[in-house]
Amino acid sequence: QVQLVESGGGLVQAGDSLTLSCEAFGVTFSAYDMGWFRQAPGTEREFVAAINRSADRTLYADAVKGRFTIWRDNTKNTVTLQMNSLRPEDTAVYYCAAGVGLSTISSDYHYWGQGTQAQVTV
Predict the structure, then answer these.
(1) For the chain, what is the mean pLDDT?
(2) How far is CA 85 from CA 12, 16, 57, 78, in A?
(3) CB-count burial class (<10 Å; 0-12, 13-18, 19+) for 118
(4) C-alpha neighbours within 13 Å on the C-beta side of residue 54
């Protein structure tokens, strides 16, 4: 059974940093491209960042470029999203996802975690 388990969310102030982690279980992690998405209340889920299976290509949403960094460790079955210079508009539930093909589209991902909440106050 495939499981993606996120951790690292929390409550921070604007300008602070958070590090989100996602650990995969029951899957050949190195065979999947990984993505992070987020969903704020009343909005649709949106793409944040993605990394391919060999970790030599990344994609970022324009809203997070230069502030967020994604990386993965295939030896530990983990993908990490480092979020710096956080803004109130980054407040959302963050989800990690696994799929085949580096993509910004949520429907291209097959497996999803349960999400972790990040809240940024002014």
Answers:
(1) 97
(2) 11, 6, 23, 23
(3) buried
(4) 2
Q: Please tell me the distance from the alpha carbon of residue 38 to that of residue 27, in angstroms, as a whole number.
A: 22
Q: Per-residue pLDDT for 1 more than 90?
A: no
CA-based diameter of the chain, in Å?
A: 40
Alpha carbons 100 and 88: distance in angstroms, whole number = 32
Q: What is the 3-state secondary structure (H, E, C) of the chain?
A: CCEEEEECCEEEECCCCEEEEEEEECCCHHHCEEEEEEECCCCCCEEEEEECCCCCCEEECCCCCCCEEEEEECCCCEEEEEECCCCHHHCEEEEEEEECCCCCCHHHEEEECCCEEEEEEC
What's phi and psi for 3, nearest 5 deg? -135, 135
**Residue in this structure with the two tokens 């995969």, named with its chain if needed:** 24
